[in-house]
Structure formats: structure tokens, C-alpha cells
Design a protein that fits this description.
With 496 residues, this protein is an alpha+beta fold. 42% of the residues lie in helices and 14% in strands. The chain contains 18 helices and 13 strands. Strands 1, 3, 7, 8, 9, 10 and 11 form a seven-stranded antiparallel β-sheet that branches. Helix 5 runs parallel beside helix 18, helix 8 runs parallel beside helix 11 and helix 9 runs antiparallel to helix 10. GO terms for molecular function: AMPylase activity; ATP binding; magnesium ion binding; manganese ion binding.
């Protein structure tokens, strides 16, 4: 039996039919290559809820053959592994060619959720690794696995993670750690940087081919003749603008800091992608910088909305050769200025239990955010306690969070008057909008410490909690409390 036949017979059949829309774009867009195997792979966790969404058997995914396949040690029948090329702006500076330096796309599978692409992150070097080793470490892989589940549980558009596998293979970061591979899932992993790459190189045929693929696959309504003068590329930019505005508004409402909003980390589908030095806010500090590598604070929490618009402008520049009209390109970007505040206000009204919209609502939100920042007050605990108060609970538990009691008393009097105008049960609405369980950094850290010792039980516990963060889970109240003092000393960098 020759080698190709032997490999085909050993390949694991996942079940669903594979589709390779991105691979059909041709070799200018990627390099086909196989993952680099890791020694002695083991299972860390399977996201059973995601497996069910995809129509996959979670028990089978936990088997040794699947663990080998999702580590890159065994082929998946029907997969067509490749690494894509893109470019981008990193920390506001043009970085030139980048690409999938440690991620390998396997292809898309047909699922009840539509076609979903599977990508192995940490599967070895590619032609785009530059000076990198192509690997991911257990620490960062667990963080991405849990955070993508947490964001999905909160209703924030995101890539997801199906499986994490580990290996004793040493990997050097700030210190020597062990290797891991995350199987990521999304309808597409196309980024702003894919468009920047071909535009910057003057490869306009490839730029048009990529744009047509994205439009025809994900945004076919952009070809409607009444959209922006019948220009489908301007309509594409407008659609991405609106999706990005909505996504970032959700980030701000839930207190999520991405940490590295480079243009190559921005999804063309408006998904949260590339979880590295992320953080959910503990205390409400608008200037919070969660990335230890971000020395200038470019990606601070309160700067995320403006950075997103800057990134969209870069995408507009990349698409301009196809749009061909400066006024049309600017018109496609303009909706961000209204869409972002509109989306954020809607999210903040929901957090306050306000189903209707009134003229003083924005001021009510701004006043409480100022009081939270002045404390600073723990962001998730405040909103959960306020929800309980609106549902008939004790106001003292909320008031005790503030040093400025008089300021809070003045605000809550206005809030109670506003709440009296609301029909239905605003407290119940708030409990469904303000999570009890948030994936704080110290919770991740505790799970990682156990995982490094071979105990993945805390990963499983946190996965369960963040997938249903609005439920009470009374046996786990300790994971919904204030962070310990040592949590303020956790430092997360781009190497995570």
C-alpha cells in the first residue's frame, strides 16, 4: 500500500460533508500544508454544547482518534488543510504580510447552523509564521476556549472553540510551557487584513475575487440594485460597518476588553476573533488596559469604539479600488457614527430594565457610569445587584458598593422614578441581561493552574457556568464574587 493510500485509510471520518469555499479561491490566497504532529496528545476538553449545535457526537470527539486528529497528528477525511495569507495594521502601524502563522484551516462542514469552518490553532509552523514557532500553549488555549464560550453565552457574536488538546511538548514564551491546540469554529475566518493584503500589493483581480466570494457567500443582498448606487463593494463595507458597530457596542456593555484590535484581528463577519490578552472588567475603569504589551494604551477599554472605526476606515481604503468613488466609500462608513451609540444605548437600557425609550435615558446611563468609575465599583457585581433590587431585593446591597453614597442616592431616586414608568417585570428582564457569572482573569488563572497539573475539572466547571451565565448556579456562588487582591497583578500579553 502506498503512503497516500495508507494515510487515506487511517483518516478519521468526522461525519458531515466537507465544503471548501475558501480553498476554491486558489493558491494566491493560501498555502496547502499539513499540521505538524505533537507527541503524546491528550484531551483537555470538548465543548459538548457546541458539538450538539454542529450535529457532532461529543463522545466521539473525546476519543483517541479524534484527539489525534484535532491535534494535527491524524488526517480528517475530506479536510483540505491550508494556511491563508493576509496583511494588516498592528498597533496602528502597517505591518505588511502576516498570515496564519500558527492556524491551519481544515475546511467547512455542513451543520444545522449552516456551513462552519474548522481551524486548528497551534498546529505548527506555516510559511507565514515569520519568527514564530507555530504553536499555542495550554494557558492561552484554555483562555480562548473559555472566553469564546463566555461571549457566546452572553450573546456576543464570536468565533467558538470545539476542542482543546494538549501535549507535553515544551514551548517557550516568557517561560517554558506546554503545547496545546484549539479547534476553532466560525462561518469564516476572513479578516480585514485579507483585503488589505491584496489591495496593498495592487493585486486587484485577487481583491475582487475575495470580495465577490465574501459577498456571494455571506452578503448576497449587497448586490441589490438599491444599495449604495448598486455598488456591491460599497454595500459590503456598509454591512461590515454595521456588524462591527453592533459587536463593539456589545463589548462595551458587557465590559469586555479585547486587548489587541489590530486590523488582522477583525472579522469580516463582525465576530469577536483572536482571544489573546482579553479581560472582562472587574472594577469599572474606563481607561483599563488589559494587554501588558500595549504600552501606549491604544487598545484601552474606552478607546475600542474609535479603534473599530479606524480599522473600518482601513478596510474602506483596501476596498476603495473596487468601490471607485470616495463619496460612496465614506457613505458606507458613515453609519457607524449613528449605529454604535444606538446599539450601545439599547444594550444599556436593557441592563437598566428599560424596555421603552425616553429622552432622559442617556443621561441616566452616563450618570451611573460616572459614579461607577469614581469608585471604582465592580462592574458585573453592580449590575447583578441592581437587577436583584429591581426584582424586589434589597437596595442596601447596591448602595454599599459606592463610596459616594449621596451621589448614588440621587441617581437611584431618578432611576426608581424612571422604572415606575415601565410595564411588565423589569427586574426579570435585568436578570436576563446582567450575568451573574463573568469569566474574570483570576478564574481563568485558577483553572489554568490546575490544568498544568493535569486536572481539567475547573475548566469544565467554568465552561458550564459561562455557557449559562444568567442562571443562579447556587453551588458556585464563590465564582461570582469579588476578585481576590492578587488578581490585580495578573499580566496578559500578546504572547498569550
Amino acid at each position: 500500500m502506498d503512503q497516500a493510500l495508507a494515510e487515506a485509510s487511517a483518516a478519521l471520518e468526522l461525519g458531515p460533508a466537507w465544503q471548501h469555499g475558501f480553498a476554491q479561491l486558489g493558491p494566491a490566497f493560501f498555502t496547502e500544508l499539513r499540521p505538524t504532529p505533537l507527541p503524546d496528545p491528550h484531551l483537555v476538553s470538548v465543548n459538548r454544547r457546541l458539538a450538539a449545535d454542529l450535529g457532532l457526537d461529543a463522545d466521539r470527539l473525546a476519543g483517541s482518534d479524534a484527539v489525534a486528529a484535532f491535534t494535527g497528528n491524524q488526517a480528517l477525511q475530506g479536510a483540505r488543510p491550508l494556511a491563508s495569507v493576509y496583511s494588516g495594521h498592528q498597533f496602528g502601524v502597517w505591518a505588511g504580510q502576516l498570515g496564519d502563522g500558527r492556524a491551519i484551516l481544515l475546511g467547512g462542514i455542513a451543520t444545522p447552523q449552516g456551513v462552519q469552518e474548522l481551524q486548528l490553532k497551534g498546529a505548527g509552523r506555516t510559511p507565514y509564521s515569520r519568527m514564530g514557532d507555530g504553536r499555542a500553549v495550554l494557558r492561552s488555549s484554555i483562555r480562548e476556549y473559555l472566553c469564546s464560550a463566555a461571549m457566546h453565552g452572553l450573546g456576543v457574536p464570536t468565533t467558538r472553540a470545539l476542542v482543546v488538546t494538549g501535549s507535553p511538548q515544551p514551548v517557550r514564551r516568557e517561560e517554558v510551557e506546554t503545547a496545546a491546540v484549539v479547534t476553532r469554529v466560525a462561518p469564516s475566518f476572513v479578516r480585514f487584513g485579507h483585503f488589505e493584503h491584496f489591495s496593498a500589493r495592487g493585486q486587484l483581480d485577487e481583491l475582487r475575487q475575495l470580495a465577490d466570494y465574501v459577498i456571494d457567500t455571506f452578503y448576497p443582498h449587497c448586490r441589490a440594485p438599491d444599495r449604495l448606487g448598486g455598488n456591491p463593494y460599497a454595500a459590503l463595507l456598509e454591512e461590515v460597518t454595521l456588524r462591527t458597530a453592533a459587536m463593539v457596542a456589545q463589548w462595551q456593555a458587557v465590559g469586555f476588553c479585547h486587548g489587541v484590535m489590530n486590523t488582522d484581528n477583525m472579522s469580516i463577519l463582525g465576530l469577536t476573533i483572536d482571544y489573546g490578552p482579553f479581560q472582562f472588567l472587574d472594577a469599572f475603569v474606563p481607561t483599563q488596559i488589559c494587554n501588558h504589551s500595549d504600552e501606549t494604551g491604544r487598545y484601552a477599554f474606552n478607546r475600542q469604539p474609535n479603534v473599530a472605526y479606524w480599522n473600518l476606515f482601513c478596510l474602506g481604503q483596501a476596498l476603495f479600488p473596487l468601490i471607485g468613488d470616495e463619496e460612496l466609500a465614506l457613505a458606507a462608513l458613515e453609519p457607524y457614527k449613528a449605529a454604535f451609540p444606538r446599539e450601545l444605548e439599547a444594550r444599556m437600557r436593557a441592563k437598566l430594565g428599560l424596555a421603552s425609550e425616553k429622552s432622559g435615558d442617556r443621561q441616566l446611563v452616563e450618570q451611573i457610569l460616572s459614579l461607577l468609575a469614581a469608585g471604582p465599583v465592580d462592574y458585573p457585581i453592580f449590575w447583578r445587584r441592581l437587577s436583584r433590587f429591581a426584582a424586589g431585593g434589597d437596595l442596601a446591597a447596591v448602595r454599599d458598593l459606592f463610596l459616594d453614597r449621596a451621589g448614588f442616592d440621587g441617581w437611584v431616586a431618578q432611576y426608581e422614578a424612571r422604572l415606575a414608568d415601565e410595564a411588565g417585570e423589569p427586574g426579570a428582564r435585568m436578570l436576563a441581561a446582567n450575568p451573574k457569572y463573568v469569566l474574570r482573569n483570576h478564574l481563568c488563572e485558577l483553572a489554568i493552574r490546575q490544568a498544568k497539573l493535569g486536572d481539567f475539572s475547573e475548566v469544565e466547571t467554568l465552561l458550564s457556568l459561562v455557557q449559562s451565565p444568567f442562571e443562579e448556579h447556587p453551588d458556585h456562588d464563590d465564582r461570582a464574587g469579588f476578585p481576590p487582591d492578587w488578581a490585580t497583578h495578573i499580566e496578559i500579553s500578546c504572547s498569550s
